[in-house]
Amino acid sequence: MAAHKHYTGLITRYRDRLPISDDTRIISLNEGNTPMIKLENIPRLIGKDVTIYVKFEGLNPTGSFKDRGMTMAVTKAVEDGSQAIICASTGNTSASAAAYAARAGIKAFVLIPEGKIALGKLAQTLMYDAKIIQIQGNFDQGMEIVKQIVEHAPVTIVNSINPFRLEGQKTASFEIIDDLGTAPDYHCLPVGNAGNISAYWKGYKEYSISTENHPAVTNKRPVMCGYQAAGAAPFVAGHMIDNPETVATAIRIGRPQSWDFAWAAQKESGGWFNKFSDDEILAAQKLLSQHEGIFCEPASATSLAGALHDLKHGNIPEGSTIVCTLTGNGIKDPDIAIKQCADAKPITIEASLDAVKRAILDSI
Ligand code: AN7
Question: What is the average pLDDT across 355-364?
Answer without folding.
Answer: 94
